[in-house]
Amino acid sequence: xxxxxxxxxxxxxxxxxxxxxxxxxxxxxxxxxxxxxxxxxxxxxxxxxxxxxxxxxxxxxxxxxxxxxxxxxxxxxxxxxxxxxxxxxxxxxxxxxxxxxxxxxxxxxxxxxxxxxxxxxxxxxxxxxxxxxxxxxxxxxxxxxxxxxxxxxxxxxxxxxxxxxxxxxxxxxxxxxxxxxxxxxxxxxxxxxxxxxxxxxxxxxxxxxxxxxxxxxxxxxxxxxxxxxxxxxxxxxxxx
Length: 240
Hints:
With 240 residues, the chain is mainly α.
């Protein structure tokens, strides 16, 4: 069954289809593509391609850049990594011409994810750092910056550059604890627990896995609860 968001966007799309095509139609198509991204990538691609073609026809460069990035995200979702990077480069070229730093930041983020899932961690880090720099330049919210810090920390952790990973996790932790973003904190605490596990600081690892578990239980996240219990179980064996 389609989500409430998709149902609302489909209705909005139909309202715009009875009018002469304009920027509103291109925008709704991009939003609908994003809404369908995980549940129906084929439908998402149909919407993004229509938005891209309409944006070219109506000379709407900002929407065209969004369409190209959306197409990149869709190809990333289905594992077409070369195509994903190609679309991202097209999007980046437009954003650079527009001087849109926020747009450039989002594209760097998508390129970073594309590199990361392929195991190209050093290249992913370059894009994540560039995304962070652009977000800082355009005054992004602290929550957006915290997500960049988290992603950078994950990359450093995978390279076993643990002190660097810990420093970026700490930036994110301060922001999310201040805003009480419990969903993100649960994931962050899990990662911090793993980091302390790598450093063989098992008491600290246990502390953060327990923090993650407490939030997962409050949120009713069954998968998260299972993962946290598994991590705690393994730690208890090592501590015994």
